[in-house]
Fold:
Amino acid sequence: MSGDPISLRRGRSGLVIRLSEDGDFHMLCERLEAELAELRPGNVGSAVTIDVGARLLTTSQLLELEAIVNRYVGVRIVQIIDSAGTGWPEAAPEPAPEPAAAAAAAPALARTPAPEGGRAEIRVERLPLRRPPAAPLGAEGEPAQLIRRTVRSGQRIVSAGHVVVLGDVNPGAEVVAGGDIIVMGCLRGLAHAGARGDEAAVIAAIRLEPMQLRIAHHISRPPDDDVHSAPGPEVARVRNGVIVIESYHDLAAGVAM
Amino acid sequence: MGTAIVITSGKGGVGKTTTSANVGSALAAAGKSVALVDADIGLRNLDLVLGLENRIVYDLVDVVEGYAKLRQALIRDKRFDNLYLLPAAQTKDKTAVSPDQMRQLVTELKAEFDFVLVDCPAGIEQGFKNAVAGADQAVIVTTPEVAAVRDADRIIGLLEAEGIRDPRLIINRLRPQMVKRGDMMEIEDILDILAIGLLGVVPEDEYIVVSTNRGEPAALSRESKAGTAYRDIARRLMGEEVPMVVHDAQPSLFGRLRRLWGGV
Structure:
């Protein structure tokens, strides 16, 4: 492949950006940025679909693409698809889960990020993580890494197993674990549990006020107008394809298990 | 042997230099011998705030490079005989000095002074690494803003990595009236995130602008609320127990009435 790292066309439902299979990711980002800058005047309100084709993307690369698209006023990602479809067992795209359904599944849940509504909302229907879900690394009985301090802004903890933090995780800090993440304090930063694809991983904290939560390939963030913080410990997990937050006490009492 | 304290923040413009000048002056006024080191090479300011800029002959880089003796570069304050400034070079940059050289310099100063206060530049790069080299303790300055608190948090983590434990916090430019209205971060919110000891709270005070421009530290003024806060901080650094009071820059109703009546 010698040509463009990206191709851009106008589809029925908005712009479709197709990424080439190979080539430097950095160059691709620059090119995307240039294309979007040129498009900008006539395309306020455009819905953007990113077709990653057969390209392998990491979660952070995906976020970078999201960030670039978000920089352009009025343009928003509605969908990320991989047309090559090699890594996806499902034939049809999964419908975006209804927030109501998710709420019904978890009665105690107060803060399910609504996938529709504000312009800035991103509905990622299928994420192009091609890595097959590996055998869950952080199963019960697996070793955990114990962090006996507060994880501060700019610090990053990465562990293949579970991570237990005896302290806070501050804004700007990141904890990435192959298994579960337990914070015996306030989680205000970013936590990524099941980072190798384990959807059964959970994130628990005495106070859960995260910047962003990631479990396997699912990403969620609190709604922009969310100032409410539930008192007491909470647990985040994946239910019906979305990350939901539940009170730990309800879980422990067996209500929502 | 004295104590070397680095005054740092991560974010710029939160009042590191003002804090250095005022705490240094307050310590000197209390009879301690103090060396102020301006580690912000290339952007020197501390001499201005102290009103000493026209006395600079040699600077920190001259000492490190061997062009001048430490004694020659130290400038004696015009108000206190026991307060000295080691000015930064203005025509060089941060790479002109290495952490090892700074460590040696600070060690030399500690032998002569009770307190060595190092005014750290903003940022987390070479300038920061130079400034913290040789410091025994750290004082972190923040303002009640999320960006400043975030950077302070980053700095605390970096200080831990440098082996400087238990830094203490100064919350600068607090406006008690705004906090009361819920428009400004509260002291408790900041301490909740940073989880370090509080050394002092300095209220927003217009007098700081005046004193900085004149080169007369506010800590020497009995009128200035910020000055009072800086004197409290100096006493805490000397090991005294001083109750944590937020000196409100806004005069009380009684105070205003008294002024109307032409009172004291």
Q: What stands out?
A: Chain B touches chain A at residues 150-151, 153-154, 156-158, 160, 192-193, 195 (CB under 8 Å). The CA atoms of residues 121 and 183 of chain B lie 29 Å apart. The two ends of chain B are 44 Å apart (CA to CA).
